[in-house]
């Protein structure tokens, strides 16, 4: 088995952007983590490989990241690269929009939703896989005819997370009420994260009451995102996380350029300013919250290429 870390599995669905990555921001004095990124996606005029991403991130005070899968291929890739790279942990899942397509392909391509879920269940047992995600509901891209498959997939992912004692990363787009009702009906995992939080103050207060985590991405800096800033202001300090969702959602003032973990300091500084918080203390809280959700990046040793080849 070869080292997968330099490769990209795909490019952005819009073909990517023929522009360079932005310059590095001023480093943070207290290190934090990017708890949701997609390093398998190539973007920009000169795409960065995993090592380049993580070296840039380390140089500005980003201690590590959670690499997130969205289908079988990217989940396997995420688990394998995290097994070799001490600055990465992995999350594995089938994106909500994958579920209807997999349901429709059952018996045709040989890989249906149940087969794909079985792969996610197997990957969940690997030591550096620390979350099931991103899973949830997306009513923006999927019509009513595909929602049954989304619900079935979401509930299966919740079950996998609970059986393996892992965190759950939720993708919630135009489906706040249905996501919340599903979590309450089947029982949310102990550590549940609303990835790229997209609600407002009401959902933030509800999540706080339930003990769920809110992860804010670069869109909290957008001019038209006052609802996200209102949510941030009412979120308990011990339930706030930060992410890039790279290569998407590049923060102001860099919109239109590729996003990457090394740009997290822009979002963190903005969030601290919104909250009127001391930057170093805010970073300490973010780091503590992230480790509380995913565990330490140093808990499980990584394997070298020779060990991986011997076990293949």
Describe this structure in words.
- The chain is 40% helix and 16% strand.
- By secondary structure, it is an alpha/beta fold.
- It has one domain: TIM Barrel (Alpha-Beta Barrel), CATH 3.20.20.140.
- Strand 6, helix 5 and strand 7 (167-173) form a beta-alpha-beta unit.
- The longest helix is centred in the middle third of the chain and has 18 residues, at 147-164.
- A divalent metal cation 1 binds at residues 36, 38, 134, 245.
- One of its GO terms (molecular function) is hydrolase activity, acting on ester bonds.
Order of strands, widest sheet: 2-4-5-6-7-8-9-10
Instruction: Indicate the mean pLDDT.
Output: 92
CATH architecture grouping: Alpha-Beta Barrel
How many beta-strand elements?
Answer: 10
Protein name: TatD family deoxyribonuclease
GO molecular function: DNA nuclease activity; hydrolase activity, acting on ester bonds; metal ion binding
Keywords: Hydrolase, Metal-binding
Summarize the structure.
With 312 residues, the protein is α/β, with parallel strands linked by helices. The protein is built from 11 helices and 10 strands.
Descriptors for this entry?
TatD/YcfH-like, alpha/beta, 10 strands, eight-stranded parallel sheet, TIM Barrel, 312 residues, two-stranded parallel ribbon
SSE inventory with pairings:
Elements: E1 10-11, E2 32-37, E3 41-42, H1 50-59, E4 62-68, H2 72-84, E5 88-92, H3 98-105, H4 113-123, E6 129-138, H5 147-164, E7 167-173, H6 176-186, E8 192-194, H7 201-210, E9 213-216, H8 226-234, E10 240-242, H9 264-275, H10 279-294, H11 305-311
Parallel strand pairs: 1-3, 2-4, 4-5, 5-6, 6-7, 7-8, 8-9, 9-10
């Amino acid at each position: 088995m070869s080292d997968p870390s330099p490769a990209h599995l795909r490019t952005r669905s819009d073909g990517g952007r023929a522009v360079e990555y932005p310059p590095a921001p001023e480093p943070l004095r207290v290190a934090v983590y990017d708890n949701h990124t997609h390093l398998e996606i190539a973007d920009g005029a000169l795409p960065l490989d995993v090592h380049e991403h993580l070296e840039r991130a380390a140089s500005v005070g980003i201690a590590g990241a959670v690499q997130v899968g969205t289908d079988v291929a990217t989940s396997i890739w995420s688990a394998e690269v995290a097994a070799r790279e001490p600055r990465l942990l992995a999350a594995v899942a089938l994106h909500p929009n994958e579920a209807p397509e997999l349901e429709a392909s059952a018996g045709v391509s040989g890989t249906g939703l149940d087969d794909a879920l079985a792969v996610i269940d197997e990957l969940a047992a690997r030591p550096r896989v620390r979350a099931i995600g991103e899973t949830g509901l997306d009513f923006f891209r999927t019509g009513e005819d595909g929602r049954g498959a989304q619900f079935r997939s979401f509930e299966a992912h919740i079950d996998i997370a609970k059986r393996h004692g892992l965190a759950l990363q939720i993708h919630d787009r135009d489906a706040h009420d249905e996501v919340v009702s599903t979590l309450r009906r089947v029982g949310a995992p102990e550590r549940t994260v609303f990835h790229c939080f997209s609600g407002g103050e009401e959902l933030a207060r509800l999540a706080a009451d339930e003990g769920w985590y809110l992860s804010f991405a670069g869109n909290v800096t957008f001019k038209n995102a006052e609802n996200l800033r209102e949510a941030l202001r009412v979120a308990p300090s011990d339930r706030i996380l930060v992410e890039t969702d790279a290569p998407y959602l590049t923060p102001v003032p860099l919109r239109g350029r590729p996003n990457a973990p090394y740009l997290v300091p822009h979002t963190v500084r903005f969030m601290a300013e919104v909250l009127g918080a001391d930057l170093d203390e805010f970073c300490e809280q973010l780091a503590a919250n992230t480790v509380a959700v995913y565990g330490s990046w140093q808990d499980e040793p990584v394997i070298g290429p020779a060990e991986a080849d011997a076990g293949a």
